[in-house]
Amino acid sequence: MTKVIVGFGTCGIAAGAEETYRALGQELGARDDGLAVARTGCIGMCYQEPLVEIRDDAWRRHLYGRVTPERVPRLVHEHLGQGKPVDEWLVWSDGGRGTESDFLTKQVRIALRNCGNIDPEEIDDYLTAGGYQSLLKVLDALDPDALISQMIESGLRGRGGAGFLTGLKWRFTRLAKGERKFVICNADEGDPGAFMDRSVLEGDPHSVLEGMAIAAHAIGAGDGYIYVRAEYPLAIHRLKIAIAQAERHGYLGDGILGTGLSFHVKLKEGAGAFVCGEETALIGSIEGRRGMPRVRPPFPAVKGLWDCPTNINNVETFANVPWIVQNGPQAFAAHGTANSKGTKVFAMAGKIRRGGLVEVPMGISIKDIVFGVCGGIKEGRKFKAVQMGGPSGGCIPSELQNTVIDYESINKTGAIMGSGGLVVMDDSTCMVEVARFFLDFTQRESCGKCTFCRVGTKRMLEVLTRITEGEGKDGDIEMLEDLAHRVKNTSLCGLGQTAPNPVLTTLKYFRSEYEAHISNRKCPAHHCSKLLTYSIADDCTGCTLCVKACPTGAIRGEKLQKHVIDGAECIACAACFKVCRAGAILRD
Amino acid sequence: METIRRYDFKHMHYVGEEGRLIPLLQKAQAEDGYLTKERLFRIRDETGIPLTQIYGVATFYAQFRFKPIGKNLLRVCHGTACHVAGAKDLTEEIEAQLGVKNGETTQDDLFTIETVSCLGCCSLAPVIMIGETTHANLTPSGVKKILRKYQSGEKK
Predict the structure, then answer these.
(1) What pLDDT was estimated at residue B9?
(2) DSSP labels, A232-270
């Protein structure tokens, strides 16, 4: 039967999916062909939310974008009533039509294979899509060592950022001695600008549970934890449902599917500490302590949760596992580059035309993602840089847009692959300000254990703040570089070791912007308000709007005559700039 | 509150219930809106975990508060995407509309403003979250309308 499906990820709901769902329910209820509205998780096209898909018996699919309640009657009437798709709202169809079809057709969806296709709250949907078949397969026919060999052969590397070979991590945990072993799923997605894990958990929670159960079989673990951020209430809600359903169907719990494997999964809600994404800090948090990293080795594979051997992987890593088991390691390794196999999910945000969730093969260039998949920069502005890897990463300038995406190539630029947040910046973004923003974040999130991370990041922030406020001094750049290297070299964990990266990469690629701030007291991107001076051009129509908006009375002028700003009284608040309709306020 | 096993110093790392401190604090805060002194004492008495440790954990995590909050927690996202999309202007508008600053509660007890690092809704930036509802693609005038809905009682 034809299905009408509404995207119910956090993005969809925020864009009004509930209202659309209700409107569709009413409209379909008025017909008597028994059609019902279904829900699914994130389809990835967040910029077109609310999204509605109409899928017929033969799985012919039509995806409509920005389906507000007002658009519902016509959509139902024309597409369902008359069998004529509404082309002007069609964003994608499997017939290759739709205004946004590039966005989906250029992707390769492995981790996201079910996101947007199934109802995440219905285990039957997951089972119909081939779910838990991989678990069945490994329990039936793959002993742990063979399974681990397959994972190594696939080349899957940890998708949380560090990129360690997943299979090798499993082998270490398997070989470690211990009566009890644990599997932990790291869903503490703290990087600002990243939402891949949220979308996977909201759209396909069972794939993560299945991946964890397969890992449990591989290493011999009896218990698992999912450590998820409290900021993701919908992901937590759906995980709870998924765990209960999987237990009821015998895919989790004692004697899974009639075999000797017992695996129990518990949910732990984070309490808001970025550093808990670091594995030893995360373990501390589950144990009920402050989330402070400790020295490694011993690695968690040997001595982890409650001193037992523990395997920690990221959400996306686990979501890949069932697919690899089902399709074979070669199928996964067929995508990607020599050392970075498979695909990677990226959360696209910032000044990009199509923001959302994309999954692309490793080895694609930054340019292909930004322009090919995501349609380039918003409002026709100029592409300046991408920020990859969040606060641990860096800014890659547009000159390096041909850089291919794999772990090694990205590291060479000074950024890191990270968990997959990709924030695109245009020419209105000030790079010094971006560096200041990240340092503000890392100095707040530093756990305080290592002196240079605790104090050094604070001093770096002070220098950066000073520069963006027009108080920069000669020697500030050198001081930043010196501090950056010290913080990097003397911190225990990834947070401190990578915290200076945003500063170092912007200094490397955008040094002239720092110099302009310090020497000329100018912000080339026209962003840092204290460095801007305002004046009025001849285009002024004399409408007096700016005169009324100015809080200090710095603007003078008669009606219908060109106005003037008194520089001595102007506090550079930009109120005039925002109200001017003639575009006559100039800033420099 | 549930009683949990006494903290065992000798076997500090024994696989047991001590990992429950954070869930206990979360539960206490969910019930009272913040962590009261009395609750912390009670957790100490019932679990045997030293108060210094309880306080240490509670102050470490951003989620825990020691002051009451208003009816709705209004979280303004300052993630990277929201930052470049104008989260600062949005925060200023919210603060101006409600007449209180970040971390404060309005006179009518309706809102407490809190800036957060990232709500993970980056492609619809800038966003805010009121309670568990996310509002996206906001402009200063759009946020005004949303606040009105809560103030007029249309939304709760």
Answers:
(1) 39
(2) -HHHHHHHHHHHHHHHHTTSSBSSGGGSS--BEEEEEE-
